[in-house]
Amino acid sequence: MTRRILFIHQNFPGQFGHAAFALAQARHEVVALGINTRDIEGVRCIRYKVQPPAQPAQGAAQDFEVKIVRGQACALAMAELKRQGFVPDVIVAHPGWGEALFCRDVFPAARLLVFAEFYYGAEGSDFLFDPEFSADSLAARMRLRLKNSVHLHALEAADGGYSPTRWQHSQIPASFRARFDVIFDGIDTQAVRPEPGAMVQLQRAGLKLVAGDEVITFVNRNLEPYRGFHVFMRALPDMLRQRPNARVLIIGSDDVSYGSKPAQGGTWRQVMLAEVGATLPMERVHFLGRVPYADYLRILQISACHVYLTYPFVLSWSCLEAMSAGCLVVGSRTAPVEEVITQGETGWLVDFFDHQALAAQVVEVLATRETLGAVRQRARQMVVERYDLQAVCLPQVVGLILAG
């Protein structure tokens, strides 16, 4: 039976791209709403604009007001769809920016599925995890509670939905949790795989690196404390002193995805280079910024040791892609990472804050990497069995959308 399916994501396709494409290819009528959207074959993508309020709210209410405004803009776009005759059977929405607030008001009969990526908590999560960059206060706790407002509205209205990992699922309030499945976004393990002949050319440095070279990799969308950039930088002097032939390839921009910008101004890269740059052989540390996906993949394929650190927060695709590419991964002993890395079996875990332990573990991996082929194989096999896009994750999410 053909279904009408509406995807709502501020930055469509986001996590919905593979499912939207698969459903469109199966001849369902698929429409996507978003502010910043990228076209997908077979999907009717509609962009709408948000008008900021003339007099923005102040203090703790400001964030909530911004999300209400986005929700209202999305509701008007949904109402226009309805006027044109499109009434979805199923809505799949990311609630994080407010777009899911008024789905029920426009389409009360549609089955509403919510992508429950992250529900904020005051205990045992990212909040106050890193005392260097956070401080407890009543004001901070009030802001956090208001930050969950759009998620609570979405969870209450939803017929169901899904979270990417068991840990992220566990953060959903217990009264809603049973309605939500655990389904990861999926890794294309056929594309993201080991390649013994991989080669990377660093034009600016006049350097060619190949699989087998002593390359340490670190990847994030943006270089910031939430993803352990400060810890990694503090570990680098010891790593590079003990491994004089090692080179470091760092992928990531200087913006901020999570958390805050440095209080003293500038970027986190500038802050950390001011702290440790004088002790680093900078000719062996290569900041690559953002790179095309094909280049990113080749960098993983030549990696001798990949470092992945994160607060207790959303698990990055890059962690599982590194494992799928056959990397030897050293990760932080935080809940999202512990879900995918088993100590000594599929990688190694170190305390997030212990940069000396991180350096020692990376040095050990580099020194023994020729004997660690079984770890690489087990890491990749785990990703293939649990997180493969085509065989595991995509059938699960499409099945959820078409159920009922």
Descriptors:
single chain, 404 residues, alpha/beta, Rossmann fold, 7-stranded parallel beta sheet, 15 strands
Quickly give the structural class: alpha/beta
- Report on the biggest sheet: 7 strands, parallel
Query: Distance between the terminal alpha carbons, to the nearest Å?
Result: 12 Å
- Portion of residues within helices: 25-40%
Report the principal-axis shape: globular
Side-by-side strand order of the widest sheet: 3-2-1-4-5-6-7
The count of β-strands is: 15
CATH class division of the largest domain = Alpha Beta
CA radius of gyration is 22 Å
Q: CATH topology of the largest domain, anyone?
A: Rossmann fold
Give the name of the CATH architecture of the largest domain: 3-Layer(aba) Sandwich
Order of helices and strands: EHEEHEHEHHEHHEEEEHEHEHEHEHEHHH
Quaternary structure state of the chains depicted: single chain
Poorly predicted residue ranges: none
Number of domains: 2
